[in-house]
Structures are given as C-alpha cells and as structure tokens.
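Quick one: structure for this chain?
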Amino acid sequence: MSQTVITTAFEQWKARQAESGEPVLLDEFIFANVPGLDPNAPIDRSEGIPPAAQVVHRQPVNRKGVVNDNAVVHSAVLGADVGDFTFNWIGLVNKTSGTLAMIVHAPEQQKLKTKDGQQGNVLTRSFLMEYSGAQQETGISTPAETWQIDFTARMAGMDERQRLENTDIYGPGAFFGDGWLVGKSGSQYYVTRGAGYVGGLRAQLDENQNITVGVKPVKVWLDVCWSGALTSVWGVQSVVTVADDLTGYEQNGVKHYVFPLASIDSAGVITDLRPKGSLSDQQANSDFVRKDKNLADLNDKAKSRESLSVYSKQEADTADKKSLDAAQQANENASNRVAKNGDTMTGPLTSTYVDALRLRQAKRSFIFRFDGSNFYLLKTKENDPDGSWDDARPITVNANSGEVSLGPTRVNGDLRVGDKGAWMASDGNIWGTRWNANGQWLWDAISQNIQSVLNTANDAWNKANDAQVNRVTAGWVDGSYLPRGQNENTIGTFVMAWSNTGNVDFNNVVSGGNLFPSTADGSHVGWSLPGSWRCCGAMRTTNDAHRVSLWQRVA
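Got it. Here's what it folds into:
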C-alpha cells in the first residue's frame, strides 16, 4: 500500500510565493530507490530528497490539469525509451528552488526500456494536490485530461460484472453439444472441439486436443482465466489438466476457475461430467420429458410411463412380472436374513474381516481378531468401547503351532495338565505320577523322602549326627545349603581372592568381575571370577593384604 504526503517545506515555500505574488510552480518528478523503505509506514512530512546515489531518474512534468478550485493534478509519462531502473520513492519538486512539495512511498516497481526486440513498459504517474486556492495559486486552468485517469479498476469491474451475469445464466459449468467432451481412440484420450462456460468465462476449443492420461482412476479438468495486457485485447485462456482433484485458485493476480469434464476409472472407462446447456436447460432436462427422445432421456422410465398412463399391454405384462419377481425375491431375501434383534443361523458364518467380532458393552468391548498368523482375544480401554484394543493380550493362539499364550491368569478351582492325570490344587499342591507311579501329592512325596533320610541312622556317626543330617536335608530343600564345588564355575566353590571394591563385610555378595584369585598377602592373578560370591570373612582397603578374604560362589 502506498503512502502520500504534502511536505512542510512546500507549505513554507508556498507562503513565501504568496507574499511575493509569484505562482506556485511544480515542474519536475524525481524517482528514487530507497533501501529498506516500508511503503506501509507513515511518511515524515519533514523528509527531504534522497541522496543522489539513490535517485534513479528525473522527469519534467508533462501535463497539468485542474480538478476544481482546490485540487490540481501534475503528471509525468515515462515512455518505452526510458529505463531500466527500479523505484519505490517519487517526489514532486520546484526545480529552481529544489523545494520538495509531495512524496509517495510505494512498493518497488520496474521501469523497462524497449531493447533487443523486447517491448518495454510505459508508466504514467500523477500527483493530485489538494489545498485551499490551489487552482488560483498554481495558475493552472486546463481541465484534467482523460489520459490522466486510470481506467483499470473501471474496466476490471465491467469484466467481473459480465462474468457474474454469465454465471447467473450458465452456473459454474455449462457445455454445448460435444464441446469439451472427453473421448478415446484406441489408447489415446482427447478433448472434443466446441464451446462451454466455466465460472462465467466462455472457453472455445477450435480443434480436438489430445491429452495424456497416466495413473487411473483420475479426472479431466478445464482450467480457464481472463487475461491480457493493459493495451492488448483480453480473452479467455484455457488449459486441460488431468488430476485427482483441482479447485479454483489465483496465480500472479489472475483468478482461475476450474470444472471437471470427465472421470476415468481404473479400467479406462470415461464418465461424462459436463452439464448440458444453460441453467434453465439443465433444469428442464430434469423437469420435462423431451418429445424427440421417446422417454429415453428419463432415469426411471417405468415410473414415467405409469405417471403418463401410456403402458402398452406388453409393457404392462413385463412390468407386472418384474414386480412379482421383485416381490418374491424380497420375500426370499427377508426370510434368509439374520434379524438384528436376535436369530438362529442354520449354516456357518464366515468373515474375511480381520477384527471379525466385537462384543460391546457400555464401558468396554472384547474383540476376536485373526490376522492370518495369530488369533487374539483382545479388549479395549475402559470407557472406549468403540476404540482399538489396549496393550493386554488375554489369549493368543499361534496359527502354525497351536501354542496358546495367556496373559495374567487366575484359575478358580483345580488346574488339569496333560493326559497323565497331573493337576494342581487351589492351595498350590501338585498331584502327579512323576514321583509315584500310582499318583501322589508332591508335598507328601517330599515329606516322605526327608523322613527317609532322617530315619537312615544305621551307624554310630549317623546316630551321632542326626541333627546335622536334618540341617543339611532341610537346607537342600529351602535352598540355603550350597555344596562345596570343584572349580570357580560351580555353585558352592570356595576361593581366596583379592577384591578391587570398597570395604566388604561378612556375608556381603560381590560380583565375580571384582574378584581375583590370590595369595594371603594380596598377590593375585590377572583374571577375574565369574558369577556372584559371598564374603566368608571381611575385606578392607587398608592395603593389598587386607583386600584378601575367603569367598564362596552363590550364583
């Protein structure tokens, strides 16, 4: 957006001219390109002429005209022999005194000169100056000439009015005969010559035009716009575009209107989408029967004949038979359908949908899903009965192996396993034939074996050490007893080792990676132990000898 002001320097100079009785003469335009100029910002009325390095052109005032007693116009015409330069600042001055009278800040504009066979542009720039007594003080008596007025807006308004009036008649799209009809010859698609309206603009195709159709399905669109140069004849430009979707748009200030001519399905079959004739014709085609069509233009011929009472006997018999067949078919379909409120099926129900069945309640649903590899019983989140399933997997069945995986499971009652009669009671005891061929509870079998060990006291040592036998046996059962092993890889093995950790107390467990087999004075090997080890003494960091202790592997 441009900004314009009359300067304070002009007001002061004009006052001096009035005192001396001299006319107010403004006779030169100055064009400049000012870096960083914001055309939307207000202009400081004390602003002066830009530095000479920024001035790109000076032009004498070519025409002056009076609008009324208080308004005059000064104009300059920059012909095609002037240029090339870019400007965003225009000033009107008194050349003799150098007084800057008016300023315009505008977006950057180009002035091009005709050269090398390329037509330049012609620009007219005018200043309308309004102040009390302007006509008398400037001495301008010639009326403002018509060339000083920009008719662009007026002509654009006339064009838009005509387009809207055409839209009232033809709607967003209207075509005549085969104009712009999409056809096909062999594998070549084409658009047929003729006329049509899109967005109120009349588009004429003088010769058939071949089009390229790639991936299908797709649509064929007619894209039109109204364009031309300032001094040229304007006309409708039209382009045929093949695309899935297209909407009206604006490009470089020019509005484009689009309409689908046809759709082409994946098999290459063309469906004509062109409305025929004006809006009244299009409505008439729907509202009235054409006598030259013999009812061939109607969508529902049977209904139309019935309304007109023009059934022939053959047609009536045919219609009756079709009605009877349809009624019979409807009855058969009704009897073979499953009722929504409950029914009994006498045949299998097959579904190819992955999530074949959803059991829905108010707060949650369960879903039966088979993806070809696994069958799942899934559930949705609470308060989302129509949503997808949550992270839980209550039941999963592998389709290849038949293996069943269960999520968190609770069995209310006995759990039977396999075909050998094994089962687990609700108190955790297990019945099986692994420890007794005739079947026995596991707890009873363990108790009998322990008692058998305790009763084995046939010599003096065993009799003297019944308590020790009892402790070892009980320790074996509860896992607290660790037998002496043979090497560092055996649970229960003892070793003297040096530790690289901090202080370790009796019964603390340390990773074998921190322990190195050693002598009593701290001399140790370079490799560490595997597993985890319990300290059987104590270890301190005072010196290497204090870092040595006895360890037993526990894991």
